[in-house]
Amino acid sequence: MQWLYCDFHIHTTWSDGKYSLDNVVSLYGEAGFDVIAITDHLLDQESVTRSGLKTSELQVMDKSEFGAYQKALWEAARKAWETYGMLLIPGVELTNNTDRYHILALDIKEYISPDLSVEEIVESIRGQQGLSVACHPYIRNHSGDDPSFYLWENHERLATLFDAWEVANRDDLFNIVGLKKFNYIANSDFHEKRHLLSWKTLLRCEKNVESVKEAIRKNEQVSLFLYRGGKIRQ
Ligand code: ZN
Ligand code: ZN
To answer: Closest ligand to 136 CA?
Structure first.
């Protein structure tokens, strides 16, 4: 069985990414990736209210856009598969900057509010047969005042709640996730082209959504890969 080249944390112009969904698919498809997940931001209501701005000005999605977003992702998934043989998994990044946690929900079917507690969010993801990932749980070089410490402050309690934790996010490695032997994956947290050159995940499994989710949950044949550019497969 082949190792699959994967990136499970990617933003597009549906939130604060610089690349449109189509351009993201072309970029990763041309590079030869096997599996990507699109994970645009939904932001908690208190953060929106506190900012005094609209969600569009904050470059996050609101609940009313979720249906159209899902539809666009399904359409992009079809194109990605037909054009590149690349699997595209629909997702979101539930972004709670008030209580300071970011959670990836992959392969969910219905809207989940980022205002919910961590436990409620994970339960809802699980109820939809989705996959939950704790994002960038530790200090990142590119953001000093990190808005996502809650997960690490509570990691003893939350350790096995998530299907996986990010052991790497873009340039940052969270060796502590490895040390604790949590289930792990590595992602680019892609917002712009230079972010493509970053830590990624290798998975050894069949190239379909259920097998990918199962492989992450089992977390046996998983590896890290630092992508430096060029074509992965000929
Ligand atoms: Zn985040
Ligand atoms: Zn992100």
So the answer is: 1
